[in-house]
Design a protein that fits this description.
The complex is a heterodimer of chains A (272) and B (406). Chain A is α/β, with parallel strands linked by helices. Chain A is 31% helix and 25% strand. In chain A, the strands form two sheets. Chain A has a six-stranded mixed sheet, sandwiched between helices. In chain A, strands 2-1-4-5 form a four-stranded antiparallel sheet, with helices on one face. Classes of the chains: A alpha/beta (272), B alpha+beta (406). The interface between A and B is medium-sized, with 27 and 24 residues.
Amino acid sequence: MHRRWAVRASLQEVPEEEAVNMKDTIISVKHLVKVYKMGDLEVHALRGIDMDVQKSDFVAIMGKSGSGKSTFMNIIGCLDVPTKGEYMIDDVDVRKMNKDELAHLRNKKIGFVFQSFNLLSRTSALENVELPLMYNSKITSKDMRERSIRALESVGLASRAHHFPSQLSGGEQQRVAIARALVNDPVVILADEPTGNLDTRTSVEVMSIFQKLNTNGITVIIVTHEPDIAAYTDRNISFRDGRIQKDFRVEKPRNAAAELLTMPILTEEDTI
Amino acid sequence: MKLKNQLKAALRSLAKNKMRTFLTMLGIIIGVGSVIAMLAIGQGSKESIQKQIAGLGTNLLTVFPSASMTGGVRLEAGSSIKLTIDDYKSLSSRCPAIMYSTPTVRTSGQLIAGSQNWRTSVWGVYPDYFNIRNLDLEKGAVFTMMDDRTASKVCVIGQTVNKYLFGEGQDPTGRMIRINKIPFQVVGLIVTKGQNAFGQDQDDIVIAPFNTVQVRMLTVQNIQSIMASATTEKMIPEATDEITQVLKERHRLGPSEDPDFTIRTQADIASTATATAGILTALLASIASISLLVGGIGIMNIMLVSVTERTREIGIRMGVGARGRDVLLQFLIEALMISLIGGFLGAGLGIAASGIIAKLMSWPVTITIQSIVLSFLFSTAIGIFFGWYPARKAASLNPIDALRYE
């Protein structure tokens, strides 16, 4: 499972069938409740969520704004703690952790991808990817560099390692963000509206990367409100008013890599 | 996060806003510079005062006869005639803690040279006097013990006397002056000593052999005082004891009886003057350190702005696993770097400014290593003190809020 994201095969050659079929539960949520207090007003963002995510699942969480999906994502990502309920990630109970322990957990087990990329400006792509490893004192600078280059290679951006975010297209920036999310070898990659700021073709590109990573055994959870995007995943969960409305497996997920081949190529550098 | 990476990250973020970093640093540069310059001025004046006192001879001991009492009326100190040349001789032979010594007699005289005249004091001393008082000659040579024995009519004059009698910059050696109508040949000119710490003109003086003044001018037997220098400054108390013992014995005074003479040293005067200069230094430095404090507030201000501007960056860092203390350290290191680099440049500025002050205003200036170390420590402390609050603020941000910050 070490460095499972490091692939040699190009995207086009990814086999159709699921490569990994282990079904360990890595995220387990029971009766999760989150209540925000805004003055006297109590906002119930989550009203009791029960959910398990297995290893190598590719999950899309859907719902309108205000449905609680972002709150859920923040709690799953250990950025926030639930008001009530249980949350276990990789057999670690998150409820009793303090801020520093949560930070450590984020560093070790979670990779984030945001809608707005959230790259450090005036910092090269490579250094952006290195960032999570910077906060891991056990990694040497040489190791850090090697792993970051490998992460960039796996999203097809090795040639752009020394470009600044402002010199990269939106799709490329998001791929840097994905490389950053997977560089610390996390148990799960969480992506909050990863295609929200991208055009159709670039969105498909990003989804193809997620599919490729997932095929190699990485658990991916994305939040999206676009059914088109959710169709690339294996499992869709709809949120509504802080509760799970629907939870179903996608019969036949779309294949982003295959679709990309049929899409018109816009410019040379948009291809992977 | 490793320190090396922290330093690199701090340098980079400071380099992103070069102008702002420089202006913030300027506060510290000026602060440290002025503290160093002020301390240099203070230290310089302290040392020049010390040097002046040392010029009088810090080892100097003066023995006066005590105030004489005639029928219950005390006359001024030195007015008694108890001290004799024999007292001097026993002192010079029996006190090992004394290096140089001389009897002195003093009178005032009207000096005439050509068409000029001048009134000043005339000292009669042994040549050792020049060693005791650290007097150097600009021209000519000191008279000798032979001159003393023969009561030669020779003298050494100070710059002020030279100025009024022969004109400034003239070489007076070999020329004749009449002191109270007695003709003297000038054999030497003392280098300029300027005013002493009490405002007296040390150049307004004529020095002649002891015997010449005592016998030819005063025609007295007693001597007015004995001047001596202890072998070292530390030996002054011992020299005092020896003198007391010898003189009491000679004057047939029991150990418990009050001595009929007084011994004065320079130590008291020196310590007072040094203390005054010390207060001056402290005052200058504390005024200068206010500017360092203002520089510190500048750092705090900019760091607060920086934390607000970089809220999103803080969110990203926390998102990927930075703990509160990593963020705290990051901002603290930035603040510290501003103050340390500022301190370094400020030290350079302070040294340069001290040099310019010394040159333009010809003030005595001394830069000490301590003052540089002190201002470095001070600026570091300021960096930590004023960097702490903004860094704390950054570290306590909630990662979600920080990530959402626009």
